[in-house]
Specification:
Helix content: 10-25%
Largest sheet: 8 strands, antiparallel
Mean pLDDT: 84
Order of helices and strands: EHHEEEEEEHHE
Strand order of the largest sheet: 2-3-4-5-6-7-1-8
Distance between the termini: 38 Å
Low-confidence stretches: 150-156
Shape: globular
């Protein structure tokens, strides 16, 4: 009898940023193209020109090339500014192999705690999700370091 595979645990990353909650949400969403490492974290790599999060339920997360071609990375499935954003995640993969990313923003002390939860690895067919752990840390640090010019305190 085949052995049942264990569910793959979600990845969770939390950072504290030195800005109000509404600003942290705006930085993550509206300024997405300013901080996302498009040359290394995109489908088209050096051919990618811009990436965008469309700010509404059902909006897309996508990249655009100079010729206007677009590659979809996912879709917004929860839009609750300034507290929560959730989107499907499937850069370069078919819709049925999508994962889910939830980003929550909470007021903490004089700043904001941002928690990113990436789940659905078994559906994506991504068996080595633990190897991807540093990527979200890098991306979150780029996001808020570029905007606040502050050293972030990562919490694991």
């Amino acid at each position: 009898m085949p052995e049942k595979s264990k569910p793959i645990e979600p990845l969770v990353h939390t950072v504290w940023v030195d800005c109000p909650i509404a600003e942290a949400f705006r930085i993550f969403t509206e300024d997405f193209a300013e901080w996302w490492p498009l040359q290394t974290h995109s489908i088209s790599k050096e051919d990618a020109e811009r990436c965008t999060i469309e700010p509404w339920l059902g909006g897309r997360v996508f990249e655009r090339m100079p010729d206007g071609k677009e590659e979809e990375w996912g879709a917004i499935i929860a839009w609750e500014p300034p507290g929560r954003l959730e989107f499907t995640w499937r850069p370069g993969r078919p819709e049925d192999r999508r994962e889910t990313v939830t980003v929550e923003f909470q007021v903490e002390a004089d700043g904001t705690q941002v928690t990113l939860l990436h789940r659905g690895w078994s559906r994506s067919g991504e068996p080595l999700c633990a190897l991807r752990t540093p990527e979200w840390n890098t991306v979150l640090n780029l996001c808020f370091a570029a905007a606040t010019r502050q050293q972030l305190v990562a919490r694991y």
